[in-house]
Design goal:
With 430 residues, this protein is of the alpha/beta class. The chain contains 13 helices and 21 strands. The chain folds into three domains: 208 residues, 3-Layer(bba) Sandwich (FAD/NAD(P)-binding domain), CATH 3.50.50.60; 93 residues, FAD/NAD(P)-binding domain (3-Layer(bba) Sandwich); 102 residues, FAD/NAD-linked reductase, C-terminal dimerisation domain (Enolase-like, domain 1, 2-Layer Sandwich), CATH 3.30.390.30.
């Protein structure tokens, strides 16, 4: 019998299995598709690999500004795809290497009881089980994936040629990242978003700044628009990316009495379901569908199974959100709108990248840093950043929020010059 069986080897499941092994548990890891799940194979890693290639292309086109003359840079899509696949394969091999002392079972899991699973032809028992089965793309009634004209975020990663006109249905994180990527590569991009703004969950000012940047690049944006009103014949391809939903496959959770709601597994703050020995982590629990949050949940669940006497709670408010558009966007904690709606007397600290020496050196001056703090206590509550390396800079504010730092404490830190990080210090100067 195993001490722990983990269903799903994405970021949540793999991280849970690794942590459980570190804590001395005998672990089985079950995966029906590919090790690394959505993030490694169909999400974070391949998209960012493609985005980096697009960034290099964009830099080459403006190289003359840096005094470097490059004649007629060209896009080699097959080479871009090959590089992306190489990165995925290298990381996959690394993950397989880390599975020593963990039993990897390939196949779809199904519950027989609260302690017993069938995986293909195997039947295993485990004292504890973590469900980490991830998520899948959502479809709109009447607009369904066909793999040819209407494609998913997974399909678009393997294009053999660039479309001339691309419709992106959904102006959330996935839609905006692909819009940024393909517009840089010369594709005519149109975004359709049902809500009043792009990135509906982000700070309104940040979303507006991105919309302005996109329009400068020629991206057409239609907010407050139902995709069903758009003529798909006007486009070569339509990318449908209106969100993701928990994926529970054929687990048959009703058989063992695990509580679900709208197909997501319900857990408490310790990642425990209503069944004492069954936990869940990652996208299958709903909430923030972020790889690093999934890993945090998986590690927390594994720790709580191995060390129940000192169980830890997850802290979703401390999870940074990163969007790899151009310009990049990142946020942590509370937004300005949320703070005002909650009646918090807030203080806004702000710095524009136009004033940054390093941003000018990089030729990336678009954007700003906005830090939100409690006006009465000085406690840092959150931040939103749009601009160069925003996804790296947010780590500093994440540390500040998690450590309950005040503006005065952040202000006293010496930042190196010239760097982008000193923009944070400039924002909080008196």
């Amino acid at each position: 019998m195993f001490d722990l069986a983990v269903i799903g080897a994405g970021w949540a499941g793999f991280s849970a299995a690794q942590e459980a092994k570190r804590l001395g548990l005998k672990v089985a890891l079950i995966e029906k598709d590919k090790l690394g799940g959505t993030c490694l194979n169909y999400g974070c890693i391949p998209t960012k690999a493609l985005i980096q290639s697009a960034k290099i292309y964009a830099l080459s086109k403006k190289s003359a500004k840096f005094g470097i003359e490059i004649d007629n840079p060209k896009i080699n899509l097959s080479a871009i795809q090959k590089r992306k696949d190489t990165i995925i394969n290298q990381l996959s091999k690394g993950m397989h290497f880390l599975l020593s002392d963990i039993k990897l079972l390939e196949g779809e899991a199904q519950f027989i009881s609260g302690e017993e699973l069938i995986v293909g032809n195997d039947r295993i028992k485990a004292k504890n089980i973590i469900i980490a089965t991830g998520s899948k793309p959502i479809q709109i009634p009447g607009i369904n994936f066909d793999g040819r004209k209407i494609i998913s975020s997974s399909d678009i990663l393997n294009l053999e040629r660039l479309p001339q006109r691309l419709l992106i249905i959904g102006g959330g994180v996935i839609g905006c990242e692909f819009a940024s990527l393909f517009s840089i590569l010369g594709v005519q991009v149109t975004i359709v978003e049902l809500m009043p703004q792009l990135l509906p969950q982000e700070d309104k000012e940040i979303a507006k700044k991105l919309e302005v940047a996109f329009k400068k690049r020629g991206i057409k944006i239609n907010t407050n628009t139902d995709a069903k009103t758009i003529n798909l014949d006007d486009f070569n391809l339509a990318l449908l990316c209106v969100g993701r939903a928990p994926e529970l496959g054929g687990l048959d959770l009703k058989k063992i009495g695990v509580h679900t709601d709208k197909n997501r597994v319900l857990t408490n703050e310790y990642m425990n379901t209503n069944i004492a020995n069954i936990y869940a982590a990652g996208d299958c629990t709903g909430g923030k569908l972020l790889a690093h949050f999934a890993a945090h949940q998986g590690i927390t669940a594994a720790k709580n199974i191995a060390q129940p006497a000192c169980a830890k709670q997850i802290q979703p408010q401390l999870i940074p959100n990163c969007i790899f558009t151009d310009p990049q966007i990142a946020s942590i904690g509370i937004t300005e709108e949320d703070a005002r709606n909650k009646g918090i007397k807030l203080n806004l600290s702000r710095f524009d990248f136009l004033g940054s020496g390093m941003a000018r050196i990089l030729e990336e001056t678009e954007g700003f840093v906005k830090i939100i703090s409690d006006k009465e206590t000085g406690l840092i509550l959150g931040a939103s950043i749009i601009g160069p390396k925003a996804t790296e800079l947010i780590g500093i504010i994440t540390l500040a929020v998690q450590s309950h730092l005040k503006l005065s404490q952040l202000r006293s830190i010496i930042f190196a010059h010239p760097t982008l990080s000193e923009s944070i210090h400039e924002a909080v100067r008196e």
